[in-house]
């Protein structure tokens, strides 16, 4: 059941509709998220997305990760644990960003910030290019 949901995958299938917060391009066009960077374990109800920021010092890496997390949380059944990671060696503060993206309290606090939530919503809004 979830395999079909993932195959119509909210990260891969719709990524053309998600924009990079700093660029007018989609995450797909920038190779931030690729098909092979998404792991799904239906038996364990676990999804891991590993993304590659555009540059080693990408200031928007946390925002991109939050956008991916929000999209998955909204799209998957609640039983799924979502794990968002930066590809190893692709960001200067990889460990810090990974910790922030996978800490429930930090994510909840970030999503309570109206300005930050607006940026995330903009990132997730469809583009018609």
TrEMBL record:
Domain MIP18 family-like: start-end pairs: 19-79
Highest taxon of source: Eukaryota
Coiled coil: none
Assigned keywords, A-Z: Chromosome partition
Pfam families listed in its UniProt record: FeS_assembly_P
Any GO CC annotation of this UniProt entry: intracellular protein-containing complex
GO biological process terms held by the UniProt record: chromosome segregation; protein maturation
PANTHER family attached to this UniProt entry: CYTOSOLIC IRON-SULFUR ASSEMBLY COMPONENT 2B, CYTOSOLIC IRON-SULFUR ASSEMBLY COMPONENT 2B-RELATED
Similarity comment: Belongs to the MIP18 family.
Protein name: Protein AE7
Organism in which the protein naturally occurs: Ananas comosus (Pineapple)
């Amino acid at each position: 059941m979830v395999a079909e949901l993932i195959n119509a995958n909210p990260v891969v299938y719709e990524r053309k509709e998600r924009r990079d917060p700093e660029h007018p391009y989609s995450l797909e066009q920038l190779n931030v998220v690729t098909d092979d960077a998404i792991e799904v374990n239906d038996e364990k109800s676990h999804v891991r997305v590993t993304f590659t920021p555009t540059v080693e010092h990408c200031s928007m890496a946390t925002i991109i990760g939050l956008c991916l997390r929000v999209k998955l949380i909204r799209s998957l059944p609640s039983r799924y644990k979502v794990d968002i990671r930066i590809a190893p060696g692709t960001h200067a503060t990889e460990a810090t960003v990974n910790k922030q993206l996978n800490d429930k309290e930090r994510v909840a606090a970030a999503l309570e910030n109206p300005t930050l939530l607006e940026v995330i919503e903009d990132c997730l809004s469809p583009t018609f290019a």
